[in-house]
Amino acid sequence: MKNIELPIPHNEKERLAALKRYNILDSLPDNAFNDATKLVSYICGVPIAHISFIDESRQWFKSEIGIGVSEVPREISFCRYTIMDTKMVEIPDTLLNERFKEDPNVTGGFKVRFYAGIPLTTPDGYNIGTLCAVDHVSKELNEDQRNALSIIAKHVINQLELSTKNIELDAQKKIAERAVLAKDSFLANMSHEIRTPLNAIIGFTDLLAQTKLDTTQRDYIDSVQIAGENLLLIINDILDLSKIESGNLTIEAQPFNLKKTLKHVYNLLKIKASSAVELNLFVDTELPEMVIGDQGRLNQILVNLTGNALKFTEEGEVTVSVKKVNETDDDYSLRFSVKDTGIGIQEEKLKTIFERFTQAEESTTRRFGGTGLGLSIVKQLVELQNSEIHVKSKEGRGSEFSFTLTYKKVDYVETPIEKLMEEHPGKLKILLCEDNALNQKLAKSVIENFGFELDIAENGEEGIDLLSKNNYDLVLMDLQMPIKDGYQTTEYIRKEMKLNIPIIAMTAHSLVGEQERCYDVGMDAYVPKPFKQAMLLETIKTVLTKDTNQPPKRKIDLLFLDEMSCGNPNFKQDMIDLFIQKIPNELAQLEEAFNTNDMENVKKLTHNMRSSLDIFMLKDLSNFLSIIEQEAIMGKFTSESLDKINILHCGIIEVVKILKEL
């Protein structure tokens, strides 16, 4: 064969750049390409077929049949000519072709007699490779076969485009995940950094309010207290919104006194109503005393809606009403309404008022204050309870917000509980582990005001040292400290020092699962900063009167299991036995898979375990599994994943223990 100069496309530089953009060279086998190659071989009836890509020096085979090598030098390939063309190159008989009749792969090698190659052309017009059919005998393709090869060639390019888009999307997804993680981390840190000085502001203001003040000073103090409370509400709104968006806010199902909750909301907001506004509470006479649901979230919804109504009503009335609209053997449906005679909302603004950072008018924020987050949070809290919130309003005449929630019935009637330790607990010696100087000073003033003695440790190690030298009745434990944080210190006190002294967590942080983790490491109670003096004192009383060896006991709802069993006690017992045998083993497998970053096994185990936990209505633990499963699907565990695994471990151990007692 004559020496023929290697043909080079006029746009070779751009063509190579287009090829590299797909990142296809030297990649692993792919079923989609292999199937396309088999299809070419079948349609054309040839023993040799391939999908190849040509770079500066070689022809690399992404998929091939009948060749047996991964690449050949570019200068000996037939396809170096095909990429110069815009259409299919077909050679019925290579022995009759002047260019190829003396080629080593015609006279020997692969013994090529028939060749058909179609360039693989990118959407922007660059020939980066070829799709080929080759035979040892001469032949000619019919029109249907040629059309089929063209279609398959387009399919190959589409597959490359799709793969590239997926890679880009995956990269964008990782950027988004990092952004979400950064946002969550920022919000958690912001919570701590703002709450820490706010704790001091509110705390010292409370102390100042207890001193003798003249009328003007009292007025100033009241204003500072209101400003502090408003700032705290804004911080809590932002943190709640973050929890809802990340799926980490769950709705609890615990018995609570509905009428007391409504009365509490009324009493709380009554003092905020101006003298020109009358706040009314209308309760259906058929309203149940006790229900099962999330008391805290109902309280939050009603306080937000009623607070808004009072804020936007300068004269007239605000009416909160609750009516029973339906009752079954198992639950009640209750309609809640908050109606006012305030400024009202323009009709065109009604669709947007539930959007975050949105208020009906720009002037509303300047005139009445607020972040515009409240209604967005209310809407999502209502939707988390499988309901919808509705609004009716006329500008200048007032508004009404309403929603219907379904609560399960309670099997027992609440009995009055004698208030614990009505009397002062007497002289106490308390150890405070806290590194912030302002918080140390505040706590010292508050604790001494209670009549207790206080020692202060700057960090966990100092706290352990003081505990080993002195006798204390109680430890107040900040969670974020240098050297040894609150968790590490508590674990050391419980496991190494073997002390049962009551420990109360005090933190300005607001991470999901933090309260559960406090209990898991051995703390007895949890007080968020900024703390109210009355709340702290009540918590101190509570932990001193309960058995500190007994952490808060979980309640297991077997209602769904009862329904499944249809009255068959043997079936119910079998399900409980199966849970006890199966779940701890699967938990151990999950922990091992998590520690080794075995994402596939984590996905499989979390999915399987969730169905079992859902049967026993363990919503909080099932929610942790859902979050871990989603992280495994995304291929990356977040900084809180280990916390969730630890909480899950403690929760399942507790559940198994309770089920064994049954």
UniProtKB/TrEMBL annotation:
CDD domains to which the protein is assigned, alphabetical: HATPase_EvgS-ArcB-TorS-like (cd16922), HisKA (cd00082), REC_hyHK_CKI1_RcsC-like (cd17546)
GO molecular function, one term: ATP binding
Keyword Transmembrane helix: yes
Keywords per UniProt: ATP-binding, Cell membrane, Kinase, Membrane, Nucleotide-binding, Phosphoprotein, Transferase, Transmembrane, Transmembrane helix, Two-component regulatory system
InterPro entries attached to this UniProt entry: CheY-like_superfamily, GAF, GAF-like_dom_sf, HATPase_C_sf, HATPase_dom, His_kinase_dom, HisK_dim/P_dom, HisK_dim/P_sf
EC number(s) reported in the record: 2.7.13.3
Domain Histidine kinase: start-end pairs: 189-409
4-aspartylphosphate: modified positions: 478
HPt domain segment(s): 568-662
Keyword rRNA processing on entry: no
Cellular compartment(s): Cell membrane
Domain of life of the organism encoding this protein: Bacteria
Modified residues (Phosphohistidine): 607
Pfam families referenced in this protein's UniProt entry, alphabetically: HATPase_c, HisKA, Response_reg
Catalysed conversion reaction: ATP + protein L-histidine = ADP + protein N-phospho-L-histidine
Enzyme class: transferase
Ranges where the Response regulatory domain occurs: 429-544
UniProt membrane topology term: Multi-pass membrane protein
Protein name according to UniProt: histidine kinase
